[in-house]
Specification:
This protein is of the alpha/beta class and 339 residues long. It contains 12 helices and 8 strands. The model has no long low-confidence stretch (mean pLDDT 96).
């Protein structure tokens, strides 16, 4: 394995001194707007772009001293990018918020006025896209998605910048929080990791869900009732998913609480998976949304400086088990992979 100078530089920018990716995520747009509106008791249209920018700036300013990088969006996040700590690299999202709900398949779209070249020009060290994906969709739907990812990979290669692909599993017309989907999730995650490890996609880092739903892992604090897997079965699924990855991978928090994500990372460590870190968003700051909605930005900053910092440090403590991204290729440093 060899890595080009630009990709090496980008990966180094978003990793800590160990080569582990301890990144915060603040690229939410539509979901953040809806959450603020709900807590304020107003229509979504009453949440202004300035409010989203203000929220993102506060989260970024307070949390990035404790992170190796921050993931933001170019629509509302560029002022926050300028407010980040000097130790934190910058990932920028390239996809539109949400997906096409006028036809089946949760088909993605890119931001109209952005390209990889433009995102790099805006300061991005790495490019990230989100893709809703299931191996159980029709060939016609997944062919569209495969080609879409190939195009973005080619853009990132041309601009010599790392490409982070975030895969989120789903089932058309179903609730992904049910025990029925929990039973399918290991295969959805594993096959997605296997697919996008293929070289034609040009992916540098897979940002993935864990292959189980912790709410259905027997014996965990997150499990409050019926279970879909024992703890040993869950660890087996972690190992099976990790085994098919041909690219470094990091875990996303998927909107769970800080306590649940910490327990998730502990289980990953028990399973001895070779994950290279996290890109963690709502598990660190989502409880600050009602604070901001009801009391304003100063109260949010106070909450972040207290509970938000505790949350991100809780996650960081679980990253002792993470492996440097370059060790995935058997290298002792990023420089050892240089072209």
């Amino acid at each position: 394995m060899r890595i080009t100078p630009g990709k090496q530089k980008g990966m180094k920018a978003v990793s800590d001194s160990r080569g582990v990716i301890a990144a915060a995520a603040m690229d939410q747009r539509g979901s953040l707007k809806s959450a603020i509106a709900k807590e304020r008791g107003v229509d979504k249209s009453a949440v202004t772009p300035q409010m989203l920018e203000e929220f993102k700036i506060a989260v970024t300013r307070v949390l990035t001293p404790h992170a190796s990088a921050i993931l933001l969006d170019p629509e509302y996040g560029l002022p926050a990018a300028r407010a980040r700590s000097s130790n934190a690299g910058l990932l920028l999202a390239y996809e539109n918020s949400g997906y096409d709900n006028t036809r089946p398949g949760r088909l993605p779209d890119l931001l109209d006025i952005w390209s990889v070249r433009r995102l790099v020009g805006a300061g991005a060290d790495c490019i990230k896209i989100l893709l809703y994906y299931t191996p159980f969709d029709s060939h016609e739907i997944n062919d569209i998605k495969h080609a879409w990812v190939e195009r973005i990979g080619a853009e990132c290669t041309a601009s010599d910048v790392p490409f982070f692909l975030e895969c989120v599993g789903y089932e058309e017309g179903k609730d992904e929080k049910t025990i029925e989907f929990a039973r399918k999730k290991p295969e959805v995650v594993t096959k997605s990791m296997e697919e996008f490890s293929k070289p034609q996609y040009g992916v540098d880092v897979l940002k993935v869900e864990v292959p189980v739903n912790m709410a259905y892992v027997a014996g965990t604090k997150a499990c409050k009732g019926e279970s879909a897997y024992t703890r040993d079965e869950a660890k087996k699924y972690f190992r099976s998913a990790a085994a098919v990855a041909k690219k470094p991978f990091i875990y996303l928090s998927a909107g769970v609480s800080n306590d649940v994500f910490n327990e998730t990372l502990e289980l990953a460590a028990e399973a001895d998976t070779n994950f290279s870190g996290v890109l963690c968003g709502r598990a660190t700051w989502k409880e600050g949304i009602p604070v901001y909605a009801k009391q304003g930005v100063k109260a949010l900053e106070d909450w972040l400086n207290d509970q938000g910092v505790k949350n991100i440090n809780n996650v960081n403590a679980r990253l002792k088990a993470a492996k440097p991204w370059f060790s995935f290729y058997g290298a002792s440093s990023a420089a050892a992979l240089a072209d």
